[in-house]
Design a protein that fits this description.
Blueprint: H1 3-7, H2 11-33, E1 40-44, H3 50-59, E2 63-68, H4 71-77, E3 87-90, E4 103-109, H5 118-128, E5 129-140, H6 150-158, H7 174-183, E6 187-200, H8 203-210, H9 215-223, H10 226-239, E7 248-260
Parallel strand pairs: 1-2, 1-4, 2-3, 4-5
Antiparallel strand pairs: 5-7, 6-7
Helix pairs in contact: 2-3, 6-10
Amino acid sequence: MSETSRLFTDGEAYEQVMGRWSRMVGERFLDWLDVPTGMRWVDIGCGNGAFTELIVARCAPSSIFGFDPSSGQIAFARTRPGAQQADYQVAGAEALPLADDSADAAVMALVISFVTNPAKAIAEMARVTRPGGWVATYMWDLERDGVPTFHIHAAAKSLGISTGSLPNTVVARQEVMRDLWQTAGLVSVETMVIRIPVRHESFEDYWAIQSLPVGPAGRLIQTMSPDQTEQLRTRLREIMPIAADGSIAFEAVANAIKGRVP
């Protein structure tokens, strides 16, 4: 089982934790990618189907496949009313059950850092995409505190609490992505930084959502003792940008890349 399928198995809970921010960054990514309507799409690491649904709404694909290693996520994705045309299947990024040149656009949304073999995954994306087609991804800038859950890990680290094994943060760098795309033989390679505002109504709202057992932050909280949990809550209050009205606002940052199959 991949790291992705262990961390993200509950589609409904993931929607609460990251859904709104994932949609926001996904919208900006699709605007930048600028694929014409009526194309054949492949959404690799589709998770609970949020990005697949966004592709359907914004890009009017002629067909779309959604692949994810988590059967729980796929089950939730199939309930989404906005992407009923999607063909969802349980499959990993490194072995896509598609023929060569069978797609016009292959994308990964917030997935590449959780893929066991990113180079193989990019090669697979290029394989299933026809000449002239698009291969693209975007990922939170994990090394520069770009992920919306950054504060929990920073607070835990300051308390000496182990955050366990982190995903592949290096592969989220623009220069590393560019090397992967060029190694895969893709051309017209471009990168972009996507910045989005993150807002919570209150600290309690933030804590209730982020402590759900989904993803690295939620899983970390679930393993902590009651004393550690209270210490973490206290430290979070100290380091988070809490406004006078109690709301929390900060910026999340993702790196994106796109290229064409020669």
